[in-house]
Inverse folding.
């Protein structure tokens, strides 16, 4: 069942009116501030949980990124070493030919 925003608001108001009537018949008063505080606390807890989960995911992604960067640096160092060996070998050959 789809309820429009206006109908939903009317349903909520009718529910609150019924709760107030029942509490009034018992000599009590409806404390909407307590409900608002409870809703805010619940929403805050939910957001904190999501933030902490996101933080954990971000930390894992950061570790993965660091590993990838380390492998990239090792590969670059290996290629540099190979390039230097090829250069040194070519220089040695040139010296022998010219020698």
């Amino acid at each position: 069942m789809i309820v429009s925003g206006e109908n939903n608001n009317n349903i909520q108001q009718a529910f609150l009116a019924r709760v107030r009537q029942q509490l009034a018949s018992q000599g009590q008063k409806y404390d909407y501030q307590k409900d608002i505080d409870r809703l805010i606390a619940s929403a805050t807890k939910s957001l904190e949980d999501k933030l902490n989960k996101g933080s954990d995911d971000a930390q894992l992604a950061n570790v993965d990124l660091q590993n990838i960067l380390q492998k990239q640096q090792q590969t670059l160092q290996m290629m540099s070493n190979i390039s230097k060996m090829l250069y040194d070998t070519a220089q040695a050959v040139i010296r022998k030919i010219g020698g």
The mean pLDDT is 80.
